[in-house]
């Protein structure tokens, strides 16, 4: 009999670790707003369990282990009768009043989520989703905002290009000042706790450290041309996008508000070979006072992200979004990879909840389950004491985010 087999299990239901995993309050450090009731069916519900698009979303994602597991878990909240299938779940939820659906899955007594940070720059949020304050009904602490920097930049450029006489260095400088002033103003807003960049989607995470003024002006001319033809702006121009991110990194460092980066897992709009957080190493080194948060477990580049948190004092790793997109076994492997190297005072949890209340519920339930499974196994192997494991859970779910984002919250242990 091996040493691990001979040890009495130190973790069991009712233990301090079990209580910490399933009952300790949590700060959801990255999510997006819920759809408004009149738009509850605006997007394919399969987006709940996959980042795919088109047929890969509606036809293929329902055959994943992630979907099969989600149906079983959701059926405990919405009665499906004997037929527990994805289609039966969609039919059952459609019959529930929207307020009832939200209350069932967002109930703070069930999820133990105390505070949510919302990135409200997701496409179509203004048109289809509820505002930040509306979400306060589901938490005991007020909802906070994450400012998406590329969306701010697009808004400023849209206004400027409507009356621009010429696209030149002066226009770039005027834009840069306005953009920096806007981000600085956001930092002074008590509801704003940080920034987010979607450089990963637009031009990749290989953000250059040095300034390319000529290139940025040339990109600005391309943006102006596109705006003249379509009346819309979507910033996906390398030199200009990198310029925008560098300004955001400067402001983040000066005001002490973290900047989150989408890394790894996403839809097919990103280039996977430019999605590894390893590409961020030069700017992490160039902006040592800027707090970087690597979102979404950086999956499938989790080990690279863990390395960056270990060797740079200004990098934190969020283990989110993989709940529920990845299978249970995959999630356990991801959390194990997070813990391989990342300091446990620098890991953060999130749901990446969006559009549907079920996304918040599954993101919370599955993360808690996997923390319990992984850490209780470490206890059985004698690699951690129970007190050490409990502290890891409490820090990951609440205290690390509370400290990093300067919330000064006390964990609500009564709900």
Automatic annotation (TrEMBL):
Residues 249-388 form the Amidohydrolase-related domain. GO terms for molecular function: hydrolase activity. InterPro entries: Amidohydro-rel (IPR006680), Metal_Hydrolase (IPR032466). This is CBM1 domain-containing protein. It comes from Mycena indigotica. The lineage of its organism: Eukaryota, Fungi, Dikarya, Basidiomycota, Agaricomycotina.
């Amino acid at each position: 009999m091996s040493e691990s087999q001979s040890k009495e299990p130190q973790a069991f239901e009712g233990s301090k670790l079990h209580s910490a995993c399933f009952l300790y309050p949590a700060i959801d450090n990255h999510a997006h707003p819920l759809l408004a009731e009149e738009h509850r069916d605006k997007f394919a519900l399969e987006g709940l369990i996959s980042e795919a698009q088109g047929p890969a979303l509606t036809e293929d994602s329902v055959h994943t282990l992630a979907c099969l597991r989600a149906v079983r878990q959701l059926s405990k909240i919405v009665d499906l009768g004997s037929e527990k299938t994805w289609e039966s779940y969609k039919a059952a939820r459609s019959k529930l009043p929207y307020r009832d659906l939200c209350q069932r899955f967002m109930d703070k007594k069930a999820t133990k989520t105390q505070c949510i940070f919302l990135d409200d720059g997701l496409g179509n949020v203004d048109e289809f989703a509820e505002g930040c304050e509306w979400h306060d009904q589901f938490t005991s602490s007020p909802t906070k905002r994450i400012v998406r920097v590329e969306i701010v930049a697009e808004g400023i450029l849209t206004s400027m290009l409507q009356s621009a006489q010429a696209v030149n260095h002066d226009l770039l400088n005027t834009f840069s000042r306005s953009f920096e002033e806007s981000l600085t103003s956001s930092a002074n807003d008590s509801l704003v706790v940080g920034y987010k960049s979607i450089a990963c989607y637009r031009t990749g995470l290989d953000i250059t450290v040095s300034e390319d003024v000529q290139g940025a002006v040339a990109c600005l001319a391309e943006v102006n041309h596109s705006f003249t033809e379509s009346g819309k702006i979507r910033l996906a121009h390398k030199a200009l996008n990198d310029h925008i991110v560098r300004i955001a990194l400067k402001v983040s460092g000066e005001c002490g508000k973290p900047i989150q980066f989408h890394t790894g897992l996403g839809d097919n709009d990103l280039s996977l070979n430019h999605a590894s957080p390893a590409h961020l190493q030069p700017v992490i080194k160039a902006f040592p006072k800027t707090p970087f948060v690597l979102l979404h477990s950086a999956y499938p580049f989790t080990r690279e992200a863990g390395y960056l948190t270990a060797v740079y004092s200004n990098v934190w790793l969020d283990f989110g979004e993989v709940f529920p997109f990845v299978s249970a076994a995959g999630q356990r492997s991801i959390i194990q990879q997070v813990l391989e190297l990342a300091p446990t005072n620098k890991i953060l949890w999130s749901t990446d909840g969006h559009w549907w209340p079920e996304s918040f519920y599954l993101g919370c339930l599955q993360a808690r389950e996997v923390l319990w499974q992984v850490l209780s196994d470490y206890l059985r192997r004698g690699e951690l004491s129970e007190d050490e494991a409990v502290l890891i859970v409490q820090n990951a779910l609440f205290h690390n985010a509370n400290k990093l984002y300067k919330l000064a919250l006390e964990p609500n242990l009564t709900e």
